[in-house]
């Protein structure tokens, strides 16, 4: 048992920063293996923090949800984008100001904790606008945001995720709703609080007193980019929204250090990826260049070592300004994934 722990990926870290949607749960349901793995790593003394761009719920509500799916959590382990948005707000307005809230009670609570007053109409003379996701958002809310932003008020978005995973498929996220307002008024928000901006992760690292943190997420442009932005390693899991092709095509600022099917990768030894010009390998899997095409060999029963090798080679070629086509290799690797019925999301 000790031997396995020593060699496992998690052994290199003293704190894990988990994104939630698409990593620990999808909608109301637990992601397979998440509860068992998190119990295992907590028992080893590794701090677990939960960082979510989802602005709809309070830390207490998130902690209750986690506990209900078998991941016991306290509110102080949960950092939400409204908490970061309220920190950013201080750059624009005085403490105690009225703030027009477009979104859920997570934003209202974060504002109240810092002495701001929530209003729901421009008629109540707010000094700023905070916009975050809520499943109950209506056209009237988006219209109110539009009137307020057009009147010249500072406009802060909790996050800009265009989508998030649900049990029925990918759904519009706050970024899509912010885009409705931005398109209507002809300008972008004055600030964005959530990942990939640093505040969420920095707060989590600070609270955990972490020296060797690992960021874990399912999105390249938020979770992985946030880790890169503050210079910490990151793990991408494929229980959420990212496709193999998106991984292989990732820009340098959005490339994860580690990847795996799901959180079990944390408690397993992580195989070394060796890359040279035109060639890379991971375990028994080999990726190599045939002209401008990446071929993958030796990936026969599961795709992950093959994907690690193909991504590493594709990134190296991209960095050398050499366009390559990995599509056939990636389609082959995708065919090695377990059937969708054993996955939490429809990917
Ligand atoms: Mg996510």
Description:
The chain is α/β, with parallel strands linked by helices and about 350 residues long. About 35% of the residues lie in helices and about 20% in strands. The protein has helices at about 1-5, 35-45, 60-70, 80-90, 105-115, 140-150, 175-185, 200-210, 220-230, 245-250, 305-320, 325-335; strands at about 15-20, 25, 30, 45-50, 80, 100, 115-120, 130, 155, 165, 170, 190, 215, 235, 260, 275, 280, 285-290, 295. The protein has a 6-stranded parallel beta sheet with strand order 5-4-1-13-14-15, with helices on both faces. Strands 7-6-8-9-12 form a 5-stranded parallel beta sheet, with helices on both faces. Helix 4 (about 80-90) crosses helix 5 (about 105-115) and helix 6 crosses helix 7 (about 175-185). The longest helix has 16 residues, at about 305-320. The radius of gyration is 21 Å and the shape is globular. Magnesium ion (MG) binds near residues 19 and 21.
Strand content: 15-25%
Over the alpha carbons, how many angstroms does the gyration radius reach? Answer: 21 Å
> How many runs of DSSP E, i.e. beta strands?
19
- The DSSP helix count reads 12
Query: Could you tell me the mean pLDDT?
Result: 93
Distance between the termini: 33 Å
Global outline:
globular
Helix amount, in percent? 25-40%
């Amino acid at each position: 048992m000790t031997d396995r722990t020593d060699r496992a990926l998690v052994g290199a870290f003293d704190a894990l920063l988990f994104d939630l949607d698409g990593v620990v749960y999808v909608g109301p349901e637990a992601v397979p293996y998440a509860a068992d793995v998190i119990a295992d790593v907590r028992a080893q003394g590794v701090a677990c923090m939960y960082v979510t761009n989802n602005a709809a719920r309070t830390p207490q509500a998130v902690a209750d949800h986690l506990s209900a799916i078998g991941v016991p959590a306290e509110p102080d382990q949960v950092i939400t984008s409204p908490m970061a948005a309220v920190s950013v707000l201080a750059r624009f307005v005085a403490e105690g100001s009225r703030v027009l809230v477009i979104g859920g009670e997570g934003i209202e609570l974060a504002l109240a904790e810092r002495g701001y007053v929530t209003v729901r109409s421009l008629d109540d003379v707010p000094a700023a606008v905070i916009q975050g996701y809520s499943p109950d958002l209506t056209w009237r809310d988006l219209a109110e945001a539009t009137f307020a932003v057009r009147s010249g008020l500072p406009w802060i978005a909790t996050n800009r995720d265009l989508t998030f995973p649900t049990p029925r498929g990918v759904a519009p996220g706050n970024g899509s709703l912010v885009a409705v307002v931005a398109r209507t008024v002809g300008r972008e928000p004055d600030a964005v609080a959530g990942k990939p901006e640093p505040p969420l992760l920095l707060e989590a690292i600070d609270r955990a007193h972490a020296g060797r943190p690992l960021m874990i997420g399912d999105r390249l442009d938020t979770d992985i980019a946030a880790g890169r932005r503050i210079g910490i390693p990151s793990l991408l899991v494929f229980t959420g929204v990212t496709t193999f092709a998106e991984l292989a095509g990732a820009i340098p600022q959005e490339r994860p250090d580690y990847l795996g099917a799901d959180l079990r990768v944390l408690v397993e030894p992580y195989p070394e990826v060796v890359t040279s010009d035109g060639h890379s390998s991971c375990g028994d899997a080999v990726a190599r260049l045939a002209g401008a095409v990446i071929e993958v060999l030796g990936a026969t029963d599961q795709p992950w070592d093959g994907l690690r090798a193909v991504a590493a080679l594709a990134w190296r070629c991209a960095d050398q300004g050499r366009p390559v086509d990995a599509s056939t290799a990636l389609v082959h690797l995708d065919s090695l994934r377990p059937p969708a019925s054993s996955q939490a999301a429809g990917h």
